Amino acid sequence: MRTIRILLLGFLVLTLTGSHLATAQMPDLKRGSPVPTLAPLVRQVTPAVVNISVHGRVREENPLYRDPIFREFFDVPKQLEKEISATGSGVIVDAQRGYVLTNAHVVQGASTVQVTTKDNQKFSAKVVGRDSPTDVAVLQIQNPVGLQAISFGNSDTLEVGDFVLAIGNPFGLGQTVTSGLVSALGRTGLSKQGYEDFIQTDAAINPGNSGGALVSLRGELVGINSAIISPAGGNVGIGFAIPVNMARRVMEQIIETGRVERGRIGISLQDVQKGRNGGAVVADISPDSPAEKAGLRKGDVVTMVDDHPVRSAAQLRNTVGLARIGQELKLAVQRNGSLSNVMVRVAPQQKSNNASTSLIQ
Questions:
Q1: Domain of residue 295, residue span
Q2: Is 353 domain-assigned?
Q3: Helix (H, G, I), strand (E, B) or coil at 150
Q4: What is the pLDDT of residue 24?
Q5: Is 226 labeled as catalytic in the residue annotation?
Q6: How far apart are CA 218 and CA 10, in angstroms?
Q7: Contact 109, 58 (CB under 8 A)
Q8: pLDDT of 44 over the 90 cut
Q9: Which region is the signal sequence (predicted)?
Q10: What is the pTM (predicted TM-score) of this model?
């Protein structure tokens, strides 16, 4: 099976140089002849993937520390902190300005951040901003010299079955490259809150890979490796990456304002039941909300947003939640068998809103 997989990867590499997969010939594997390899692609993209070393302090969350009797008896301060040291991965996306994409949890509590490139250059970096709901953070390397960035891909065009590479720093071993497939798209439910639209892959992702690159065979960044499912803490073939389109929108807001300001249109959503592929059903509408003013009704099925297909309620929620305040969204809405377009202006979140995660805020 491993030999077959290598050959398939080799065929796909040939397509990047203009050869069509259907006409690719079986390579001659005799001694001394060329064999399929992804080495040229790896050489191209790996300089953009960096190791991140973090030092800082985080607050202890033990509930006993909030008990005044316990604190008085054991002479424990009201806020107890501990020192942390952690490692992870990141991706250089702007070499001139030194911007690096990584996971928010990689730099949580960081007071100092050091970035190490593949050729062992070490740079100090600052945290420009981090967004926990999407688990995206942006770093900026101080005095960036001799850096190489990776090009952005379009994660909306990914399909199940596409080959991808995962690049990062697993277990602190140093830069490592693994390969696999896009196993699924639009995965949600990994946490109780947050904006999730994960790419699932069987490319090996382990602790330390967080914040690293998921790369297409075109050499483009399509995801930021973020999480795994593993009973034992290691790779079992189920890894998750944040789509680069989502990470890029978050990054642009962080660079501009230092944070992500989320919007809402005031609807709760449900996935479409049997009989349709994709879409999101409007389950409820908040009074006097942008959605109500735009003419949306309970039971409407939103099939597209800004001419992009809506796969699920979670995807639409993500799109609205990451849209800029004041931005107009064009929703394709199906109602009673007819299709129409509705323009909705995104409003700021209501700070007092404690609605469930199904409500777009």
A1: 263-348
A2: no
A3: coil
A4: 41
A5: no
A6: 13
A7: yes
A8: yes
A9: 1-24
A10: 0.75
